[in-house]
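Fold tokens
===========
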Amino acid sequence: MDDLLRFLHACYEADNHAYAEVAYRFGGDAVLDSHLPMLDLVDMLAREYEAMDPSDTRLAGLRYALRVLAQPYAEHPDYRAEWRP
């Protein structure tokens, strides 16, 4: 799971940099309809998972949710088939 979390963090950073570049070149209105707010939520869930106690009963559900949220990156060369939900 640590590898999946690192992967999600890396994708989050890359997407944020891409949106920052678009906003810089074309103005903030260019990213208004983007999925940028969703990226923040995915990152927040990944951080919550990292901070959870291993005995927390919500851990399995959050693990599954993170695997589902990684699906848009399935074509990324670093994505692993074992991360599929």
